Amino acid sequence: MTATTHESLFPAQPDSADAVLAGLDPEQRAVATALHGPVCVLAGAGTGKTRAITHRIAYGVRAGILQPASVLAVTFTARAAGEMRGRLRQLGAGGVQARTFHSAALRQLQYFWPRAIGGEIPRLLERKVQLVAEAGARCRIRLDRNELRDVTGEIEWCKVTQTVPEEYAAAAAKTGRDVPRDPAEVAKIYTTYEQLKRDRGVIDFEDVLLLTVGVLQDRPDVADTVRSQYQHFVVDEYQDVSPLQQRLLELWLGGRDDLCVVGDASQTIYSFTGATPDFLLGFRSRHPDATVVKLVRDYRSTPQVVGLANGLLGKARGQAAAHRLELISQREAGPEPVYSEYADEPAEAEGAARRIKELIASGVRPSEIAVLYRINAQSEVYEQALADAGVPYQLRGAERFFERPEVREAGLLLRGAARASTDPEEADNTVPQQVRAVLSSRGWASEPPAGSGAVRDRWESLAALVRLSEDFAAARQDATLSDFVAELDERANAQHAPTVEGVTLGSLHAAKGLEWDAVFLVGLTEGTLPITYAKTDEQVEEERRLLYVGVTRARLHLSLSWALSRSPGGRGGRRPSRFLDGLRPGSAPRGARGAGAGGSGGVERGSGGRKRRGPVLCRVCGRTLSEAGEIKLMRCEDCPSDLDEALYERLREWRMEQAKALGQPAYCVFTDKTLLAIAEVRPGGEAELSQIAGVGARKLDKFGADVLALCAGGEPGGNEAAEGSSEETEEEAEK
Ligand code: ATP
Ligand code: MG
Fold first, then answer.
1. Is 48 in the pocket of ligand 1 (CB under 6 A)?
2. What is the model's pLDDT at position 515?
3. Of 143, 313, 441, 484, which residue is 20 to 30 A from 530 by alpha carbon distance?
């Protein structure tokens, strides 16, 4: 057995229903054989929830208990749905619908629209933001970019929680939402946005669900048709179901209870869109007769990865955390997670690319490696670094594989070639040889083209088809090109994409449910994870869960990294994500002032015992500092920074005002290094503040109250900037 546990491309299909069960542990088997009535699986990452439900469906179908067409399996991302269809097909249950809520609803809506509403279904709006901006302008409300994003988010939240504009203010207050603008303004923009959509004859993403719910509610005939088609429902990732999706699910069920849900409250990462683990956690009280199964064995990850995952969860707070499940790895020991700090983002990306190259050289397939980040904008520097390192990568999800133009075209050509060579005697060439010959005319070559971009993308698609033909021929030695074309058709119907051989670049959100041998979690700094706009405790907890989801995607190799600056030569003021405090080597849990985390590199954040003029020790690693700049910072330049960025910004603004009032350059108030040290130490009183290099008695007297007020999160005031020169020799020396 190799390091991976994933299914190969063409595994032998289980030859009976019982053989389907053979791949499950006793608890998973209990899930798979509970084919009627409500079933709820509460289990942590990698414990085989998705495996249990796919096997459950396959077992039901293979045993003749479930009609394939009567089963609807719903999951969260198109990619996960594609993955599920692939797994079902491999288990011999190809005819089952596995979709996202959205795509299942859209399909039904398209089908029923002419009958239920009449005419053509309106066009689907691709991007809301523009229309929201327009709605804002109509209401004469100016929104900056962040507000626009946040107001759009609020509108989405309203729609999935079925909150009408008039109710927004009250609903937002009740749920403690951090409203981006006056709720009355948000409500006004929301109303206008809806009006604009109607005027233009378009619907948005949420409308698809809302309209489907509306039709099913109002038209019993339509609801009956849907219910007679689907009798068994399975929902994966149920912790992230929104009230609107739940409503749709209830309408599909129509009072029946053949429903199996699986989820992990610790992986709730879509609450910002209105999703909630309440439906998962309250399943048993809504269905007192439910079969409830817990899975605890983690089959995916090594004890090292699982250890970190458990450590992260151990620090989680809130409702989802109360339901956390300690994972127990079933795998052999593997390498420890690797933590790396870099000076800037390009260096971080290069470091990752270098490590990825090493992994590939050691035999890990590129498709078994992922680089995951918090926001999509982070991808660019990784695309560049991987392209420079000559490592293939893929950005697009594989789910649309068969819709790619080059794949469609290749399909047509292969079909043509298969028709032209019907005489099996004539086909001396193997199927892969024939496929390669056909695709060579369309840009396939044995070596990838240089660089990245569209040409490379196209080559990757064709190369995936070539590889598929190789695997296919190896699995079925007497197969002809026509057989391969039939396989492609079947896969296209089932949207069962072949593996595109490239490193996956994707967001943490999109990685849900997936797994790779090697995972690189990058950009783990304060401000990115948690993201700056996560302000409330709940929002920060969701960010922590996002990291948990990231960590638990790794089977074997896990790398966590961050960069102290965005660009080379930056001021290096970033600090690693607080979620890693106490977990990464050399860090202490936040709040544990002055206490090292054990080992050689314990973090010392406190200032107790440090002598003003005596040897100054690095607060982070304890080394004696000799450089003036480092002494000011009270840490080595390259030790991780604890900077409170927001505080630093506030201090800089305050300094500018002071300098203006004094008619002096800013550094005469405090130098950058002193401000940085203040923002890192966040002194709680005068004694602590006076320990910071650059804060002499006069400065303390003049600015102390202001600085301490800012550090305490308040506003400076009452402490007039005094007249006169304020230079201090040590600051001069540093200039
Ligand atoms: P997530 O919460 O991340 O969605 P999950 O609970 O759905 O995780 P799966 O993706 O179903 O977990 O399984 C994780 C991995 O463990 C998969 O590679 C799966 O094939 C493997 N696995 C699960 N159960 C078993 C088992 N009984 N024997 C061998 N491998 C298993
Ligand atoms: Mg899963």
1. yes
2. 95
3. 143
